[in-house]
Amino acid sequence: MKKFFFHFSIFIFIFLLINIITAFLWGSIKSINLLNLNTKDYYSRNILEVIGIKDSEQYDFYNEMWIERKFKYVQFAEHLEAETKNQKYVNVTSDFGRFVENNLNCKIRIFFYGSSLVFGYNAKDDQTIPSYLKKILDRKFKDKNYCVYNFGSASYYSTQENILLLTHYLDKKILPNDFAIFINGYAENGNIKSRLHDEIKYIFNGLELKVWDELKFSSTIFFNSLPAVKLYKNLHSRFSNDLINDVSDDQVKISEINKKKIIEIKNVFISNLEIRNAICEKVTINCYTFLPPIPSESDKLTRLKYYLFKDIPLLIDISEILNEENYLKFVDKSHYTPKAANHIANEIFNKINFD
Fold first, then answer.
1. Is residue 81 located within the same domain as residue 183?
2. Which domain holds residue 26?
3. Are residues 114 and 181 both part of a single domain?
4. Using one digit for the tens of pLDDT, what is the confidence trace for 90-148?
5. Does 178 map to a domain?
6. Predicted confidence (pLDDT) at residue 30 exceeds the cutoff of 60
């Protein structure tokens, strides 16, 4: 028995020592560039060229875009892209979403809402649709101060966007006569759960458990918070064989969707558009909702959704503006190249009277 306790004590000591050392060196460990140790290419040469990134920089870009990018909890809307430290490619501000180079003392303010298509996944700060619209406004109206804000976030759909708009209005972040531009359609999937729904439900339910069940609940959280476990997850995400070039918005295969579900998706979307327009009209915010170009590799469900959405009168359909363009339009299966994002921004500018 003494021998058992001796070995057990050694095990506990080593385990604690590993976690203490990992916690102490955590900042240095996270900052280590492992590209030289990991020969995997995160992006193709064509994609690196259109984004404007050297081959030697791709890990840093990938790290900012996927490893270091986090979410924060926001009341009612549940999640939003979290603010970042000062970075080279991907910066999210604490108050106004992803960074756009804005003027001071803005006279006209434009808020963008939408999914990762708006946030600009696999694109630098100045290559998003909101950033390009800001550049267009600067060229067209040199005598006016415009500010453009990017509140796009992964998996966002019309329900969450309406809630975030209301939250911004209640917080006096967006004001009467401001513009609100929504880019919708791709992530619509009816009354789906939000990205953080299960996690929030799990934590809330854990607060109501009995003593023994609460101990098991808290033990899981404690184990996942250990530095050694966090290090393992961090390394696993860096060396994973699954390239991050797939869709970040929740999608469901057509085989899992029946006619009833398809009708639900369209009806929920229409209801949200009606609610949105009523709110905007009541508080005099200039709201516009666009149906953007559909990714060329979209599955049957996405193509069917777009087909059904095209006849919704509350939508501004710009889904076909890239069809005739002869250049690379997507950096992955769903997100736009800088040139395509610029084209979309120009189309939005042509559809709205900002003067």
1. yes
2. 2-32+196-239
3. yes
4. 999 999 999 999 988 899 999 999 999 999 999 999 999 999 999 999 999 988 899 99
5. yes
6. no
Total domains, the chain: 2
282 lies in the same domain as 145: yes
Question: 3-class secondary structure for the chain?
Answer: CHHHHHHHHHHHHHHHHHHHHHHHCHHHHHHCCCCCCCCCCCCCHHHHHHHCCCHHHHHHHHHHHHHCCCEEEECCCEEEECCCCCCCCCCECCCCEECCCCCCCCCEEEEEEECHHHHCCCCCHHHCHHHHHHHHHHHHCCCCCEEEEEEECCCCCHHHHHHHHHHHHHCCCCCCCCEEEEECCCCCCCCCCCCCHHHHHHHHHHCCCCHHHHHHHHHHHHHHHCHHHHHHHHHHHHHCCCCCCCCCCCCCCHHHCCHHHHHHHHHHHHHHHHHHHHHHHHHCCEEEEEECCCCCCCCHHHHHHHHHHCCCCCCEECCCCCCCCCCCCECCCCCECHHHHHHHHHHHHHHCCCC
Mean pLDDT, rounded, for 233-257: 49
Domain final residue pick, 239, 273, 295:
239
Give the mean model confidence (pLDDT) for residues 22-37: 55
Same domain, 167 and 224: no
pLDDT at 245 over 60: no
In a domain, 171, yes or no: yes
